Amino acid sequence: GIVFGIERIIYGVTGSEKLFRLLAGDGELYFTALLGMFFLFILSGVLVLVYTPAVIGILSKVLELINGLSFLALSATLLMKP
Questions:
Q1: Backbone angles phi, psi at 36, to 5 degrees
Q2: Cα–Cα dist 45/29, whole Å
Q3: Is the pTM of this model over 0.85?
Q4: Cα→Cα distances 6→25, 44, 57, Å
Q5: Which of 1, 41, 55, 57 pairs as cysteine with 75 (C-beta 3.0–4.6 A)?
Q6: Are 45 and 76 spatial neighbours (Cβ–Cβ below 8 Å)?
Q7: Could you read off the pLDDT of 30-54 as tens digits, one per residue?
Protein backbone atom coordinates (compact mmCIF):
# COMPACT_ATOMS: atom_id res chain seq x y z
CA GLY A 1 0.00 0.00 0.00
CA ILE A 2 2.83 2.38 0.79
CA VAL A 3 4.42 1.85 -2.64
CA PHE A 4 1.17 2.61 -4.46
CA GLY A 5 0.49 5.56 -2.16
CA ILE A 6 3.89 7.05 -3.02
CA GLU A 7 3.22 6.34 -6.69
CA ARG A 8 -0.10 8.19 -6.50
CA ILE A 9 1.60 11.19 -4.87
CA ILE A 10 4.27 11.25 -7.59
CA TYR A 11 1.57 10.95 -10.26
CA GLY A 12 -0.41 13.78 -8.67
CA VAL A 13 2.61 16.08 -8.58
CA THR A 14 4.23 15.26 -11.93
CA GLY A 15 1.44 13.70 -13.99
CA SER A 16 3.89 11.01 -15.15
CA GLU A 17 2.69 7.41 -15.35
CA LYS A 18 6.18 5.92 -15.74
CA LEU A 19 6.37 4.62 -12.16
CA PHE A 20 2.89 3.08 -12.36
CA ARG A 21 3.73 1.38 -15.64
CA LEU A 22 6.90 0.04 -14.01
CA LEU A 23 4.83 -1.42 -11.15
CA ALA A 24 1.88 -2.71 -13.20
CA GLY A 25 3.70 -3.64 -16.37
CA ASP A 26 3.15 -2.31 -19.85
CA GLY A 27 2.00 -5.23 -21.94
CA GLU A 28 -1.21 -6.84 -23.03
CA LEU A 29 -2.08 -7.68 -19.41
CA TYR A 30 -1.78 -4.04 -18.24
CA PHE A 31 -5.53 -3.53 -17.89
CA THR A 32 -5.94 -6.90 -16.18
CA ALA A 33 -3.31 -5.88 -13.61
CA LEU A 34 -5.04 -2.51 -13.23
CA LEU A 35 -8.40 -4.17 -12.63
CA GLY A 36 -6.85 -6.62 -10.17
CA MET A 37 -5.31 -3.78 -8.16
CA PHE A 38 -8.63 -1.92 -8.26
CA PHE A 39 -10.48 -4.87 -6.72
CA LEU A 40 -7.69 -5.51 -4.21
CA PHE A 41 -7.88 -1.95 -2.89
CA ILE A 42 -11.71 -1.89 -2.94
CA LEU A 43 -11.79 -5.07 -0.86
CA SER A 44 -9.10 -3.75 1.49
CA GLY A 45 -11.04 -0.52 2.02
CA VAL A 46 -14.31 -2.33 2.68
CA LEU A 47 -12.60 -4.75 5.07
CA VAL A 48 -11.06 -1.91 7.07
CA LEU A 49 -14.39 -0.05 7.20
CA VAL A 50 -16.19 -3.21 8.37
CA TYR A 51 -13.88 -3.92 11.30
CA THR A 52 -13.56 -0.24 12.34
CA PRO A 53 -16.47 -0.42 14.87
CA ALA A 54 -14.68 -3.27 16.66
CA VAL A 55 -11.64 -1.07 17.35
CA ILE A 56 -11.52 0.35 20.87
CA GLY A 57 -10.82 4.05 21.32
CA ILE A 58 -12.22 7.03 19.43
CA LEU A 59 -8.85 8.07 17.96
CA SER A 60 -8.21 4.54 16.71
CA LYS A 61 -11.67 4.44 15.13
CA VAL A 62 -11.10 7.73 13.34
CA LEU A 63 -7.70 6.59 12.06
CA GLU A 64 -9.10 3.27 10.82
CA LEU A 65 -11.96 5.11 9.11
CA ILE A 66 -9.47 7.38 7.34
CA ASN A 67 -7.39 4.34 6.37
CA GLY A 68 -10.40 2.58 4.84
CA LEU A 69 -11.45 5.68 2.95
CA SER A 70 -7.92 6.12 1.63
CA PHE A 71 -8.01 2.60 0.16
CA LEU A 72 -11.32 3.42 -1.53
CA ALA A 73 -9.92 6.70 -2.88
CA LEU A 74 -6.84 4.89 -4.19
CA SER A 75 -8.99 2.36 -6.01
CA ALA A 76 -11.10 5.18 -7.48
CA THR A 77 -7.99 6.87 -8.88
CA LEU A 78 -6.90 3.57 -10.43
CA LEU A 79 -10.31 3.20 -12.05
CA MET A 80 -10.08 6.71 -13.55
CA LYS A 81 -6.80 5.96 -15.35
CA PRO A 82 -7.12 6.14 -19.14
A1: -60, -45
A2: 24
A3: no
A4: 17, 17, 29
A5: 41
A6: no
A7: 777 778 888 888 888 888 888 888 8
